[in-house]
Amino acid sequence: MESWSLLQILALQLNFLSLITTISATGQCYYPNGDRSTDTPCYTDGSASHCCGSHSICLTNKLCLSIEQPYQLSRGSCTDQDWRSGSCPLNTCQSAQPGAGAAVVWLNGTDSESTYCCNSVLVDQTSSKKFCSSINGSPQSNFSVADGYIIPGVAGLSDLVKESNSTSSVVANKTSTATTTGSSTTSNDSRSVAIGVGAGVPLGVIAIFTTGWALWERRKRKRASLYPVQLAQPVVANDRSFEVSELGTNAPKPAELYPYPPRG
């Protein structure tokens, strides 16, 4: 009986250690050569996932997009240490700089299709033709990149608040269809009302202040027109007074200039 209890305890301990290993492996990311990275998994459902850094945005095409200039695409890491899972960015700069992330640099293309290189692009000075090159200068093949959509709530967008499941599914999945629910509609309406009130209150205060100021100026001018104009007081200088008189209505007008010289 005692030996059976001991076996049960050992089994529980092994299961517990296995659970801890699974949890740590799920949250840990690795580069293609097996080295650990500090990236964050782009999917947190417990399955294998590609990973991106804290200053990058996770994309559904298993690449990362930097949130800093020049907004560079890159190949990050993966939660599968052996890089055998299809959730890893396989065949995308996997052999280029395997112990770190690799930049995915645009080479050329059209509106419908573009080609990319790993880490660097060189230009032939003679023909001005661009081609892919590794860090040591050896030529490499270019490749295309699938369309990608933003995955919110992780990596560089970890602080992004998800408004609803239907909204986030549109952002994260290209083929998904959003279904508007009553709760999301209510939240949108509430946010619209809040924005309208926030913008309307200061505008109303400004309008009231402007109207009051205009009425005050109008009343001030009206009062000023009711009082007679006071004549200027005599000016005294060296014990002598001088009367300051105003021009009458019959004062001579200044001579006008003719457009042409007067005839002699």
From TrEMBL:
<keyword id="KW-0472">Membrane</keyword>
<keyword id="KW-1133">Transmembrane helix</keyword>
<keyword id="KW-0812">Transmembrane</keyword>
<feature type="region of interest" description="Disordered">
    <location>
        <begin position="169"/>
        <end position="191"/>
    </location>
</feature>
<protein>
    <recommendedName>
        <fullName>Mid2 domain-containing protein</fullName>
    </recommendedName>
</protein>
<feature type="signal peptide">
    <location>
        <begin position="1"/>
        <end position="25"/>
    </location>
</feature>
<feature type="transmembrane region" description="Helical">
    <location>
        <begin position="193"/>
        <end position="216"/>
    </location>
</feature>
<keyword id="KW-0732">Signal</keyword>
